[in-house]
Amino acid sequence: MRVAILAPVAWRTPPRHYGPWEQIASNITEGLITNGIDATLFATADSKTSGKLDAVIERGYEEDRSQDAKVAECLHISNLMEKAADFDIIHNHFDFLPLTYSNLVKTPIVTTIHGFSSPRIIPVYQKYNKVSTYVSISNADRSPMLTYAATIYNGIRTSDFQFQNSPKDYLLYFGRIHHDKGTAEAIKIACKAKKQLLIAGIIQDKAYFENKVKPFLNDQIVYIGEAGPEKRNDLMKNALALLHPINFAEPFGLSVAEAMLCGTPVIAFDRGAMKELIMHGKTGFLLQNVSEAAEAVADVTKLSRRECRRWSMERFSQEKMVSDYIKVYNSILMKRKESLNI
Scanning 1, 73, 188, 337, which has the fewest C-beta atoms within 10 Å of its C-beta? Predict the structure, then answer.
């Protein structure tokens, strides 16, 4: 089986810091190679893979702002589609744009829908629903207007996250600095709970950071900037709990699964896919507002950090994710073979 993995080109694959779609594209590529499958990663030229890398964009357009993002995307997507005949499966992690090639290439396209940026993009998915295969990353993020082959949770390289049963006495916010991710709410929770809060992540909304975060920074509320893999592991494993007070229906939430891999419970607002990621009262708490979340901080020490790790290992490992995708690939190829024999 020859599989082409189409990663985004906003960031390097895997990302240096932020880039969840790029990270999952990398995890799938490396997992396929481990399983003996011929995988080619289509990503930026500075990307890293143990398999084959095909690139026409030197660096991600978020890392090199001299580029026009749309031009980079068009050149990148067309590069793969013009080579479609070389592959048995194309696995798309680039949202809806590659779907426009669905009727122009013979190679089956599997699209992992990492979330809907807006309901306005759904008509594109609808148009190609019969000729493409869609996979959701949570049941909560499914559109009733589409049909799906499977729900496959994002899988993490478990060896990248160390278990820690004796954490330090701080709370962690890990993610984009943006209203959607609830940075300001995390600050309020920490203040009410009288705990130190470490904030790590890229500043996606500068005005939000200046108005809702920066005025509250002090010895208790500390912004430490972006965090790469090693720093991320240390921050997560040593945290008393991860605060995830999201203000939108998040399709998944990689940091939630990553924190639990370290044994760190998660205090989250009950929105989006959080019910699928967190066992309330066992691996964290699903709550409605800042006051409830602040009260829950006192109860996190009652949760088993070993149970957090076991739960995350069982549901959100790279191995499970890749195995589930291989099943989808094989199903598509089997149906294709049967249709050609008719």
Answer: 337
